[in-house]
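Risk register update: the risk of archive-format incompatibility is retired. Evidence:
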Amino acid sequence: MSTHVVALVGSLRDQSYTRLASRIALDAAAAHGATTDLIDLGELDLPVFDADDREVGDAADLKARVADADSVLLATPVYHGSYSGVLKNALDYCGFDEFEHTTVGLLAVAGGGFPSPALDHLRIVGRSLNAWVLPHQAALPHVYRQFEDGELVDEDLRERVEKLGVRLVEYAHIEPDPRTVEARENVGADD
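Archived output:
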């Protein structure tokens, strides 16, 4: 069974550590037999989400690419203890049609030492969309110290990010759990 892994990169920076780390995870997924797609949100036209106008800009393209995935990597820089507004905006365009019964992996990079809350917040979002969120996640603290010339030089962190890519393939076709309380109670879940 073929597996397709998509990464949503929630950073707009030209020299984004989030993008670099996402490529490492996707390369590991590809080495494990998957096809991959890196969705660089900085390259898409996604105005601030307006529920009354859901099909603007590149929204349809984003939703189709995410829906095509067996597994999705949500990758974010840490801003004020949480995930980026860019990623939040992209996730607002998506919903159950794109994420339900999809395996989701989590990756956060931080300039400081506390990337974990952003991962916790994304885990809640994934579960609310009835996705299956991998227990394994990758957090890169003090990220500017971890890269040299675009390469992740900390071997332990590199191994963790690569393992995340492998897990996205290994668990891509896991049998879905029954719907979560959040999914059952969400008015838009069955639209």
